[in-house]
Design goal:
This protein has about 200 residues and is of the alpha+beta class. It contains 3 helices and 7 strands, in the order H-H-E-E-E-E-E-H-E-E. Strands 1, 2, 3, 4, 5, 6 and 7 form a 7-stranded antiparallel β-sheet that branches. The protein is globular, with a radius of gyration of 21 Å.
Length: about 200
């Protein structure tokens, strides 16, 4: 039996692995736009089935009284309600803990986590936090925070039109047409330029 030279064998092995990785990548995001559109459309059923646990808000950039596309809105599931009474303003800074994910896929059944103050499972016992300017965030994220109160933990669902659009983010971790999902807890907020009270290490 004839044997291939080592360098040829290595070359063919490289081609095989490369093709497999390409196939996996294509499978992970196959029909990505369609899958994301179907996923987002299904959230209306969740709202109708559980109207006390789900919320729907039109983007703060749009007139609430005007007719809008389905992708002009975000959905939010109330995981835990806080005890605050007021909400941030657009010019405020907020202190939050959050984790952003894509929709579920073959490799990531809970959605690929692309950003956050949390590594691993989202938990009020282990979350870190970050200070953010509301005016610098994507429209859907800002829309949610403008309706939240201190202590609220929401899971928000943002269509690509109110997130990273059809081109995705610069780093490439968010493909175009992606619905993005955030577990988001509003810890505190303050007017721009004012010091925010130090975050308590107390855990609930």
């Amino acid at each position: 039996m004839a044997f291939l030279p080592f360098y040829l064998l290595t070359f063919f092995l490289f081609l095989t692995v490369s093709c497999s990785e390409s196939d996996d990548d294509e499978g992970e995001f196959a029909n990505w736009q369609q899958r994301n559109e179907q996923f987002f459309a299904s959230l209306e059923d969740s709202l109708k089935a559980h109207p006390t646990a789900w919320l729907k808000y039109k983007s703060f950039t749009l007139d609430e009284a005007s007719e809008g596309k389905s992708t002009d809105y975000i959905y939010a599931k109330v995981v835990e309600a806080g005890d605050g009474l007021d909400s941030p303003m657009y010019t405020d800074s907020v202190r939050v803990s959050y984790q952003g994910r894509l929709i579920p896929s073959a490799t990531f059944p809970e959605g690929y986590p692309f950003d956050g103050t949390v590594y691993g499972k989202y938990s009020s016992m282990t979350n870190a936090n970050a200070r953010q300017s509301l005016a610098s965030m994507i429209d859907g994220y800002t829309t949610a925070l403008l309706h939240m109160h201190r202590g609220d933990h929401w899971r928000i669902y943002i269509p690509s039109d109110l997130a990273y659009g059809d081109s995705g983010n610069d780093g490439g971790s968010i493909p175009g047409y992606s619905v993005v999902i955030f577990d988001l807890t509003l810890i505190d907020f303050s007017p721009a330029g004012e010091a925010m009270p130090a975050w308590s290490s107390r855990r609930r």
